[in-house]
Design a protein that fits this description.
The chain is an alpha/beta fold. The protein has one domain: TIM Barrel (Alpha-Beta Barrel). 46% of the residues lie in helices and 12% in strands. It contains 12 helices and 9 strands. A 9-stranded parallel beta sheet has the order 7-6-5-4-3-2-1-9-8. Helix 5 runs parallel beside helix 6 and helix 10 packs parallel to helix 11. The longest helix is centred in the last third of the chain and has 21 residues. The protein is globular, with a radius of gyration of 19 Å. It starts with 11 loop residues before the first helix and ends with a helix. Bound molecules: flavin-adenine dinucleotide. Flavin-adenine dinucleotide (FAD) binds next to helix 6. Its EC number is 1.5.1.54. It catalyses: (6S)-5-methyl-5,6,7,8-tetrahydrofolate + NAD(+) = (6R)-5,10-methylene-5,6,7,8-tetrahydrofolate + NADH + H(+). Its cofactor is FAD. Pfam families: MTHFR (PF02219).
């Protein structure tokens, strides 16, 4: 990728839509950081903001509390993540009803990781939904929800091959998923090839790239190895030697993510999902670079002119 290829195009911001992902906080300190982040990102008017669901439903209460607060205290539209791990169908259905009663209309429906940890064999609950496709089908018959599902440009690590992966994605789309959101990736060619193959496999829902700003390269590299995402050598080189230099690390991270997003815009992509890690600064900077401005920023700009 050539970083000088992109000039600031004032019309990009009109064409690009974003969504943001948060995780439910564990402590008061984390809660305060999340709400600072939400407050900073809210004026960017994302299409929706999603709140993850911990392994085995471990964050059910915290996910619900976070979603409720977003509904009650912000103008944002929340999407609740749901997983099937270690839960019978009626338990999952009850949680979906609980969210729907709260006013939630959007969900991210997932199978979830094995309860014994990533890398172990997944065993569905004997009375549970076996995978994302079954969950989508059940949710869609419970209400006319907007349902996002997962997609894996580098293949899900448990999948024997891409054909199995596309088969699952097609089942999720056929059962009523509105869009797929991808696992994060750093090589845009992989994403583009994946979307082309999905279309050839008869999958026509939008496949929204999931973008992970690199807050901490070492952590991202470890996490990528576990979830089967490739860390290209050029990316490692960019962050080389910056472990103890957080300021330069943040500047490089924002340039890397902006480059990735701008390249995807050039390739015709208009929707982006940001894994925020409950931190605003990098996401805010990247959105600014692709022309998504808060009303406060615009107002300050015109006052200065
Ligand atoms: P599915 O869509 O059901 O399956 C994914 C792929 O795995 C399939 O394509 C299939 O090929 C393969 N597969 C599934 N089951 C089997 C099997 N039994 N044997 C062999 N292959 C199989 N996790 C959380 O815990 N909470 C979250 O909030 C959360 N949010 C996420 C959001 C996004 C956008 C993404 C991409 C992932 C998220 N995850 C989350 C991680 C996700 O739960 C894991 O990747 C999990 O391992 C698979 O869930 P899924 O819904 O993708 O599975």
């Amino acid at each position: 990728m050539n970083q000088f290829r992109f000039s600031r195009r004032p019309d990009i911001g009109d064409k690009v839509r974003v969504s943001f992902e948060f995780f439910p906080p564990k402590t008061d300190e984390m809660e305060a950081r999340l709400w600072d982040t939400v407050t900073r990102l809210e004026p960017l008017k994302p299409k929706f903001v999603s709140v993850t669901y911990g392994a085995g439903g471990s964050t059910r209460e915290r996910t619900a509390r976070t979603v409720k607060r977003i509904l009650n205290e912000t103008t944002l539209t929340p999407a609740a993540h749901m997983t099937c791990v270690d839960a019978a169908r009626d338990q999952v259905d009850a949680v979906v009803r609980e969210f729907a009663d709260m006013g939630v209309t959007r969900f991210v429906a997932l199978r979830g990781d094995p309860a014994a940890g990533v890398g172990t064999a997944y065993r569905p609950h004997p009375d549970g939904y076996a995978n994302g496709a079954e969950l989508v089908g059940a949710m869609k018959s419970a209400g006319d929800f907007d349902i996002s599902v997962s997609a894996y440009p580098e293949k899900h690590p448990e999948s024997p091959d891409f054909a199995t992966d596309f088969d699952m994605l097609k089942r999720k789309a056929d059962n009523g998923a509105t869009r797929a959101i991808t696992q994060f990736f750093f090589d845009n060619d992989l994403y583009e090839r994946y979307v082309e193959r999905a279309r050839r496999a008869g999958i026509y829902i939008p496949i929204v790239p999931g973008i992970l700003p690199v807050h901490n390269f070492t952590q991202v590299a470890n996490f990528s190895a576990r979830c089967g995402a490739l860390v290209p050598a050029w990316l490692a080189e960019r962050f080389e030697g910056l472990q103890n230099d957080p300021q330069t690390h943040a500047l490089v991270a924002s340039a890397v993510a902006a480059e990735q997003v701008l390249d995807l815009v050039e390739r015709g992509v208009s929707d982006f999902h940001f894994y925020t890690m409950n931190r605003a600064d990098l996401v805010f900077a990247i959105c600014h670079m692709i022309g998504i401005r808060s009303h406060e920023t615009e107002a300050a700009g015109s006052a200065a002119a």
